[in-house]
Amino acid sequence: EDKVVQSPLSLVVHEGDTVTLNCSYEVTNFRSLLWYKQEKKAPTFLFMLTSSGIEKKSGRLSSILDKKELFSILNITATQTGDSAVYLCAVVIDDATNKLIFGTGTLLAVQP
Amino acid sequence: DTEVTQTPKHLVMGMTNKKSLKCEQHMGHRAMYWYKQKAKKPPELMFVYSYEKLSINESVPSRFSPECPNSSLLNLHLHALQPEDSALYLCASSQARGWDSPLHFGNGTRLTVT
């Protein structure tokens, strides 16, 4: 059975801290891995990773994929209260239909 | 705001009602999706349309009926729902080719079945 596991399930930090969120996967047909941020409504797209070892960066956020060890990490440096959200990891397992398998998410709370 | 627009934002319906959820995108995407998300859970795939044809139905009960009238619109028709169907219903779209095209989600419709 295809599965995506995220850790930790929840995390509380203070502004300015650096956090690392983890995503591991076991799927029969890996195509790509995506990170989303979900506040109250729509998950918003952060990164798509398809190749091992290539870091994607966007401001204070960065992510990298290890296809040999079947995991990805999402780093957030100098956290701000606006980073508080659920961070979802998802794996595309079928490129004909773009079918996603989501992890359970990590709830990040950044305190002032 | 997202580029995928869903209406209504909130919907309360009784178990004997018939209602429809609507989704619209103008990004030229040829794949559209319905996801269901319960509280504190990740989104679960319900349906995938590719080039206006249904390509995935994740064994969804027939009280949910999707429709894709054209490449920009996606509807979800609801009939005889149960209280456990209460959830956030998310629409998403992407380029038809899968693995290099991320999904873009709408803000969802918060559905309550009484």
Provide key terms for this protein.
heterodimer; A: 112 residues; mainly beta; 6-stranded mixed β-sheet; 5-stranded antiparallel β-sheet; 11 strands; globular; B: 114 residues; 7-stranded mixed β-sheet; 4-stranded antiparallel β-sheet; 0% helix
Q: Describe the global form of chain A.
A: globular
SSE run of chain A: EEEEEEEEEEE
- Oligomeric description of these chains: heterodimer
- Got a strand count of chain A? 11
Uncertain residue ranges of chain B: none
> Which class of secondary structure composition applies to the elements of chain B?
mainly beta
- N-to-C CA distance of chain B: 29 Å
User: What's the main sheet of chain A like?
Assistant: 6 strands, mixed
Q: Could you report the average pLDDT of chain A, rounded to the nearest whole number?
A: 93
> Termini distance of chain A?
41 Å
> Largest interface, by Cβ-Cβ below 8 angstroms: which chains and how many residues each?
A-B, 25 and 28 residues
Helix percent of chain A reads under 10%
Largest sheet of chain B: 7 strands, mixed
Order of helices and strands of chain B: EEEEEEEEEEE
Separate helix tally of chain B: 0
- What percentage of the residues of chain B does DSSP assign to strands (E)? over 45%
Overall, the morphology of chain B is: globular
